[in-house]
Amino acid sequence: MSQPLAYKRVLLKVSGEALMGKQEYGLDTETVAAIASDIGDVVEMGAEVCLVIGGGNIFRGISGAAAGMDRAQADYMGMLATVMNALGMQGALEKCGIQTRVQSAIPMASVCEPYIRRRAERHMEKGRVVIFAAGTGNPFFTTDTAAALRAAEMKCDALLKGTQVDGVYSADPRKVADATRFEELTYHDVLSRDLAVMDASAISLARENRVPILVFNIRAPGAFAQLMRGEGRFTTIIERR
User: Fold this and answer.
1) First to last CA, the chain
2) What is the pLDDT of residues 90-125, one digit of tens each?
3) Of the residues 12, 28, 41, 118, which has the fewest C-beta atoms closer than 10 A?
4) Are 48 and 9 in contact (CB under 8 A)?
5) Is 179 exposed, middle or buried (0-12, 13-18, 19+ CB in 10 A)?
6) Structural domains of the chain, with CATH
7) HEC profile for 77-140?
């Protein structure tokens, strides 16, 4: 008998950088396929899954603004990068036999659906993975904030942040050998300690809507499925009990 799910409906936030593999830019097809396979395993467990994918592997709006571009214009370019990543992930998921829909906050009917909350919920109820692209559709908001917003709108049991380390640390463990790893934090802890997990608006939005945030290593095979059973290594961010 299979172990029951700890979470029935989740939103998985994946950074664009996580899709690069060992490349310095763009999509690594093997990495995307591995993540898609892990998502497929979770869907087969009976979970309802939606995704938000960043665009930093192609274009990062804030970097463009720092280089002298208009911030709003740069952010719109970043939103288009997330659509490219969403389509790439959709292709990988469908190769795994998982029905997938991409919904964009910026309407582009030739390539994907517009974002419609009730339609997205219906897709998930039917076992389809929904990928939310183009962030919130507004400049000056990150895909982290978009993830928190969509998780609240979809009434998700948790927001899962897939990173390249196995939780939240006091500093980047890949650069600081003695960085402290946290098993559990409150939203206030993250904000007051300025921990680089998600931006402050995303943390605040999750807190207001009581959406737990779970941070885990998306690059570890099977880690997503383990987390969905309440197992493995991850950091939980919740309201103070």
Assistant:
1) 33
2) 999 999 999 999 999 999 999 999 999 999 999 999
3) 118
4) yes
5) middle
6) 9-238 (3.40.1160.10)
7) HHHHHHHHHHHHHHHHHHHCCCCEEEEECCCCCCCCEECCHHHHHHHHHCCCEEEEECCCCCCC
CA 215 to chain centre: 10
Query: Nearest Cα to 145, choosing from 85, 205, 59?
Result: 205
DSSP code of residue 146 = H
Whole-model pTM over 0.85:
yes
Q: Pairing mode, if any, of strands 48-53 and 9-14?
A: parallel
Distance, in Å, from the CA atom of 145 to the CA atom of 199, rounded to the nearest integer, reads 7
8 A C-beta contact, residue 217 and residue 165: yes
* Lookup result for tokens 């993540």: 35
